[in-house]
Amino acid sequence: MQTNQETTSALERRIDMAVTMADINKEVEARLKKMARTVKMPGFRPGKVPMKIVAQTYEPQARSEAIGAAVEKAFGEAVRSQNLRVAGYPRIEPKEGSNAEQLEFSAVFEVYPDVALGDLSAQEIERPVLEVGDAEVDKTIEVLRKQRTTFDVAERAAAEGDRVVIDFAGRQDGELFEGGQAQDFPFVIGAGSMLKDFEAAVTGLAAGESKTFDMTFPEDYHAAHLAGKTVQFEVTVKKVEAPKLPEVDADFAKALGVADGDVAKLRDEVKTNLSREVKRRIQAKVKEQVMEALLTVTPIEVPKALVEAESRQLAENAKRDLEMRGMQTKDIPVEPAWFADQAVRRVKLGLIMAELVKAQELHAKPEQVRTLVDEMAQSYEDPSELVRWYYAQPERLAQAEAVVIEDNVVSWVVSQAQTTEKSVEFDELMGNAA
């Protein structure tokens, strides 16, 4: 076998190779002999078909397989001899020089880049700090109360927070427009399900009262035929209902899983769960900064083959997500190209983190994995059941190992960078800030 390597770009390589036809012919003959032992044909017992007939029938298949095996073997030997790390699959191109003596071809492929980890000492990472106390527990319980709001009929004008039931009809240039009318339509004023101008027009009306008003849709309204247009609505309020939040008592505690209705136990459980969620959100914010720092100090070019594969995977994930939401993906085109930028980022981080894990020995230790699984299990009614589930299959445990490795990388980067702590407001961290 003859080989010759050429560098065509930073990551692309071309290897010219040649294998002798004598070796291929020898392999074809060996394959045909093997087939002859078991091949079945009418008029012959298995294994007794004349070799000439076997060759006439199966020689094209045997030759195709022999050539494929020879090319694969030659390529494998070439990349191993030159210590090349191939990314993706090679593109095999026959060459015009092929003849009766030898088969010449080229393999075009990409290699993994050399990753030189950058200096993190000048990178700044800000760790949010938040201590969960009574105020945070009170806010969370208030959210839980609002999630269990009931409504009672109110004999008064509608106000912020009330649920109203209305009939409405909208007209554009005097004509009813699509989606502009409904009967017995309920919504909560201030919940954001209706445009603010529409809510403002309904506010102050009591049951049985009607109102006609003009309203202009926003320029970026999702219905293009209405964006920026001024229409006229006729609204009749049929019912006004005032919100009623449950009391924080034994019944409320029982509804949230505290069997004996002890409100103090409820508060303790809320604080425990809230502390766990705060920790998770802080870790996520630090991790995001760590990943940006790694990308900043370690610029690399990534193989197109890996980006394309990652883009396809992200597209498949998006399709599955849509299907889980009840959508028919056959009617919704999901193109891998949409995820190209995200794929490039993910591939870069994957290569950088792999090099960092190897260089700093940040692999997951069994005790770290067990600690993580135990922590995740604490939010379950029977923690031991989740632990058994993870340890029942290596694939599941590998997911936990991946999280531990990522945590190890984050911890190491934080130790190398300029890290400061900053107090953060509860609503800001939880995404509740206005």
UniProtKB/TrEMBL annotation:
Q: What GO terms in the biological process aspect are recorded for it?
A: 'de novo' cotranslational protein folding; cell division; protein transport; protein unfolding
User: Its principal location?
Assistant: cytoplasm
Q: Where does this one sit in the cell?
A: Cytoplasm
Q: What's the Enzyme Commission number for this chain?
A: 5.2.1.8
DNA-binding: is it a keyword of this entry?
Answer: no
Reaction(s) catalyzed by this protein?
[protein]-peptidylproline (omega=180) = [protein]-peptidylproline (omega=0)
Q: Which UniProt keywords apply?
A: Cell cycle, Cell division, Chaperone, Cytoplasm, Isomerase, Rotamase
| Gene3D superfamilies (alphabetical) | 3.10.50.40, Trigger factor ribosome-binding domain (3.30.70.1050), Trigger factor, C-terminal domain (1.10.3120.10)
Q: Which Pfam families match?
A: FKBP_C, Trigger_C, Trigger_N
Recorded GO CC terms: cytoplasm
Molecular function terms in GO for this entry? peptidyl-prolyl cis-trans isomerase activity; protein folding chaperone; ribosome binding
Domain PPIase FKBP-type stretches: 161-246
Q: Print the domain comment field.
A: Consists of 3 domains; the N-terminus binds the ribosome, the middle domain has PPIase activity, while the C-terminus has intrinsic chaperone activity on its own.
Q: Which NCBIfam families match?
A: tig
Q: What does this protein do?
A: Involved in protein export. Acts as a chaperone by maintaining the newly synthesized protein in an open conformation. Functions as a peptidyl-prolyl cis-trans isomerase.
Q: Report the sequence similarity comment from the record.
A: Belongs to the FKBP-type PPIase family. Tig subfamily.
* Name of the protein described by the UniProt record: Trigger factor
Q: Which gene encodes it?
A: tig
